[in-house]
Amino acid sequence: MGARGCLGPLLPLLPLLLLLLLLPPFPGSGVTSVGSESLPGAVAAAGGDRTWLQPSIIGGHEAKRHSRPYMAFLQFGAGHACGAALLHRRWALTAAHCLSGRPWHKGRLLVGLHNWRDDEEEDTQSFTIRTVCPHPGYDRRMMENDLLLLQLDGKVTLSRTRQLIPLASREPAPGARCSLAGWGVVDPQGRRLSPTLQEMDVTVMDTRMCNNSRFWHGKIGPAMICFQGQRRGSAPAKGDSGGPLVCGKRPAVAGVVSFSSKNAADPFKPPVAASTVKHKKWIQKILRRGCGSGQPDHTG
Ligand SMILES: *[C@@H]1O[C@H](CO)[C@@H](O)[C@H](O)[C@H]1NC(C)=O
Q1: How distant is the alpha carbon of residue 281 from its chain centre?
Q2: What Gene Ontology molecular function terms does this protein carry (predicted)?
Q3: Catalytic residue chosen out of the listed positions 80, 97, 135, 279
Q4: How many angstroms is it from 219 CA to the middle of ligand 1?
Q5: Best of 139, 143, 211, 224 to mutate for ligand 1, by most ligand atoms within 8 A of CB?
Q6: Are 282 and 195 within 8 A, CB to CB?
Q7: Which tens digit of pLDDT belongs to each residue from 182-215?
Q8: Is 146 a residue of the active site?
Q9: DSSP state of 192
Q10: How far apart (Å, rounded) are the C-alpha atoms in residues 85 and 94?
Q11: Is the pTM higher than 0.85?
Q12: What would the DSSP string read from start to end of 120-183?
């Protein structure tokens, strides 16, 4: 919309803009979705019904600018990957599947972003990734424990547009109202990201019901949270995965958006998040001590 008109005043932002404009053409033009490229194991092993999130956000709306200052935008090379949540000035939480097959040392995390087409430079900070810590129990076939902590190569300067979010202490009960947000792609080919942060309200589903034969039929693990869009037919989009499932009056992260079915509109295959409540101790340990993997850590 206003993108063209903004290019003039944004000249000082050209380096950031150029970086971001490189995003839409995903690598490998024959590939119709980043998902099939990123999750071959999961899709094949689960008989094709469990996949990367769908190519179009349904029923979401644009978030109020900087109303979710913990939201971060994770990208690898020229392709967009995932959403993430800022837990600490040096650490962000995302989904382990966001990494699969990607050169993580080329990853970048942008914080303080609302619209990657025209945001003000002072709102946004960009970091390279120093270390990645996937959950040791991450199972890409079953999508169990789909959590990943990213250590940034610097410290986020907290501001009006860049804030931390705490971890929830209690698992959201069935019926709990939560929300999620992301820059998920908006076109059916899955090539164009939403320039602005989109959000949607969701309701947590009873896990036993979600696991029964009418729904995910035994594929729901003990650390997964099923949820449904509050607006009928609404669902998260590809590119929204890795973003936090935010619950509670005082917003806190209860999960990380992990997977959905190929047919996002299928009410019997609701989207699923990896619980962070079940893994809170692991997350806190990593934030204190790191995970000792990734690159040698001697830059301070
Ligand atoms: C879902 O069902 C499968 C198969 O019956 C079972 O192994 C698994 O533990 C169940 N998940 C939960 C969270 O109860």
Answers
A1: 21
A2: serine-type endopeptidase activity
A3: 97
A4: 7
A5: 211
A6: no
A7: 988 665 556 667 889 999 999 999 999 999 999 9
A8: yes
A9: -
A10: 7
A11: no
A12: -GGG-EEEEEEEEEE-TT-BTTTTBT--EEEEESS----BTTB---PBPSSPPPTT-EEEEEE-
